[in-house]
Predict the 3D structure of the following.
Amino acid sequence: MSELKIYLDKDINKGLIKSKKIAVIGFGSQGYGQSMNLKDSGCDVVLGLRLGGESDKKAKNYGFKTMNIEDAVKWADIIQVLIPDEVQSQVYEKQIKPNMRSGQYLMFAHGFNIHFKRIVVPSDINVIMVAPKGPGHTVRSQYIEGKGVPSLIAVYQNPSGDGKEVALSYASAIGAGRAGIIETTFREETETDLFGEQCVICGGVSALMKAGFEVLTEAGYSPYMAYFEVLHEMKLIVDLVNQGGLADMRYSISNTAEYGDMTRGPKVIGAASKNAMREILKDIQSGKFANEFTSEMKSGQKEFNRLREENRNHLIEKIGEEIRSSFVWGRKENIVNRDKN
Ligand code: NAD
Ligand code: MG
Ligand code: MG
C-alpha cells in the first residue's frame, strides 16, 4: 500500500490562488459550489457562461460578474471547466482553445476528457485537477458550515512547474483544506471515480434499494414499510459507517441485525457481483464505457432518456415523494434548490 499524504490548510500556500484570475466555466452543481466558495475566500472569480441563459441569470443573482466563455478564457489565468463531461471537448475546441495563451492553467474536476484523450492540450498550457469528492451543492453547504468536502488534486501537464501548488491553493479556497486533500493522477481519478459511481455509490446502491423494495412489495408487504426499511434508513446507517466505519455501525445496531448483516450480506453481494464489477472495471479501463457514453450523448441520448423515465416511474419513487411530503423529516431547507442553484 502506498503511503497516504493528506494536505490540510496548514500545509498550503493559500495566498497563491488570490494572485490569479479564475474563470469558472459553467454554473451547474460544481460551478455553483466552487465559484461561491472561491468568492467567499477572497478570490478574483468570473463565470464564463452562455450569456442570457439560465446559468447566467442564476450567477448574476448571486452577484457574480459573467462573461461569454471566449472572453472569460482570455481574461483568466486559471480556467476551471465545470460543464458536463459530454460537452467539454466541443466547447474546448470551439471556445476555449482558440483563446488560450501560453502558461495558463486549464483545470478540471474530473479526468474523463483528458485521460481518454478527448481533449488534447498544447504542451505550454498547465493541465491540473481539483476534484471534490462530493456533489457541488454539498461543496457549498459544507463550506458555509465552516467545513469542507475532501478533494483530489492531480497534475497532468506542468510547464510552469507549480501546478501542484496552484491546485492545492485552489482546493483550499473551496474549503477542501479543512477536510483533507489527496494527490492522485488523472488516470486513477477517472477510472476509480467511474467504478465507484457505477458499481457502488450510485449504480450499486440504487439497484440494491430497488431490488429490496421489489422483493418486499412483490411478497405483499406495504410499499410504505418497504420504503422505510430499504431506502429511508440507508442514510442513517451510512452516516454511521461514514463516521466510524462498519464497526461503529455494527456497534450501534442490534445483535440481531449484526448477525443477519454478516451472515446474509455476502449472499446478496457475493462472487457473482464481484465478477460483474470486474467486467465493468475492464470496460472502464479499455475506454469501452467512455465510447458508449460519448456516442449515446452525441446521438441524442434516446436510451439515456428512456432509462430516466423508467426510473422516475418506479414505485419506490412515487411512494418516496408521498412519504417525504407528509413527514416533518423531509421538510428541512433543501441543499438543492433547482430555481436558484
Ligand atoms: P452540470 O451538469 O451541473 O453543469 C451544468 C452547467 O454547464 C450549466 O451552467 C450549463 O449551462 C453549462 N453547460 C451545459 N452545456 C453547455 C454548453 N454546451 N456550453 C456551455 N455551457 C454549458 O455539471 P457538473 O455536474 O457540475 O459537472 C461539472 C464537472 O465536474 C464534470 O467534469 C463532472 O464530472 C465534475 N464533477 C461533478 C460532480 C458533481 O457533484 N456533479 C462531482 C465531482 C466532479
Ligand atoms: Mg463522477
Ligand atoms: Mg431494522
Q: What stands out?
A: Residues 223-252 form the longest helix (30 residues).
